[in-house]
UniProtKB/TrEMBL annotation:
GO terms for cellular component: MutLalpha complex
Lineage of producing organism: Eukaryota, Fungi, Dikarya, Basidiomycota, Agaricomycotina
UniProt protein name: Predicted protein
Boundaries of every MutL C-terminal dimerisation domain copy: 50-215
Species this chain originates from: Laccaria bicolor (strain S238N-H82 / ATCC MYA-4686)
UniProt GO MF annotations: ATP binding; ATP hydrolysis activity; ATP-dependent DNA damage sensor activity
GO biological process, one term: mismatch repair
Length: 269
């Protein structure tokens, strides 16, 4: 009996998650993103099929896969097949892929300072900056280490070049933000200051497929496959969900469709 009630509870949770991940949830983006992460695994994007484009803005994708075996299921039970349709925002999802790629790979140009600037850092932050010197360089901040100076005295590290960009002015505050972010990350992991993130978000937006653009099946498939390769495919750089769950095909009763009255297509002409 206990097993039965557990199973009922599981079904209840999953249908609640599907509602949160679905198109009817228009109010709570955070909950949708959270639910989507539970409904889809990143590997799923590698095997999704394109059904078609909707309204020149969305990709309808179909995912078919075996339901993950649950420990409570007896061996004799048939393996359940999941069959779901998803609606994917073509701009938001391409934008997120481009954004994450830019974040990871862009080397921001730097400009040599007229006079190297000593960095007033604590001994711990000096160590952090030294260990992540390549990450700082990718961000346009070039630092020289003077080993003859004692650490924590504010003269061991010198800033010799700072980032430069046509659209954004960077300064010491941005270097402070980057070092602050580094405290919680493993050594060598890319971090970006908020100004750089905003710059990449704008660039990603401009280079992504637009709403209103007709896409062929190859282009749609590329957008889907890219989603499986990025860290956070569920929301766009602005935090909005990139996709929604549309339909669980296994819940459609095929016999009722067969029995329903034939469609009078002449009415649509
Ligand atoms: Zn955009």
């Amino acid at each position: 009996m206990q097993g039965g009630s557990n199973k009922g509870k599981e079904a209840l949770i999953s249908s609640k998650v599907l509602v949160d991940a679905g198109v009817s949830n228009t109010e709570n983006d955070d909950r949708a993103v959270d639910a989507l992460a539970r409904v889809i695994e990143k590997e799923d994007f590698a095997s999704m099929d394109v059904v078609g484009q909707f309204n020149l803005g969305f990709i309808i994708a179909r995912r078919r896969k075996d339901a993950s075996p649950s420990p409570s299921r007896s061996i004799s039970q048939e393996l359940q097949v999941m069959d779901d349709l998803f609606i994917v925002d073509q701009h938001a999802s391409d934008e997120k892929y481009n954004f994450e790629t830019l974040q990871l790979t862009t080397r921001i140009q730097s400009q040599k300072l007229f006079r190297p600037q000593p960095l007033e850092l604590t001994a711990a932050d000096e160590l952090l900056a030294t260990e992540n010197i390549e990450v700082l360089r990718q961000n346009g901040f070039e630092i020289e280490v003077d080993d003859s100076e004692c650490s924590g005295q504010g003269s061991r590290l010198k800033l010799v070049a700072q980032p430069i960009s046509k659209s954004t002015v960077f300064g010491m505050k941005d270097l402070e933000e980057i070092i602050h972010l580094m405290r919680d990350r493993p050594t060598g992991q890319m971090v970006r200051c908020s100004k750089a993130r905003a710059m990449f978000a704008m660039r990603a937006c401009r280079k992504s497929v637009m709403i209103g653009m007709p896409l062929n099946s190859h282009q749609m498939l590329t957008v889907l496959r890219h989603m499986g390769t990025i860290d956070q495919p569920w929301n766009c750089p602005h935090g909005r969900p990139t996709m929604r769950h549309l339909l669980d095909i296994t819940t459609i009763d095929s016999t009722s469709i067969m029995q329903s009255a034939p469609i009078d297509w002449s009415a649509f002409q």
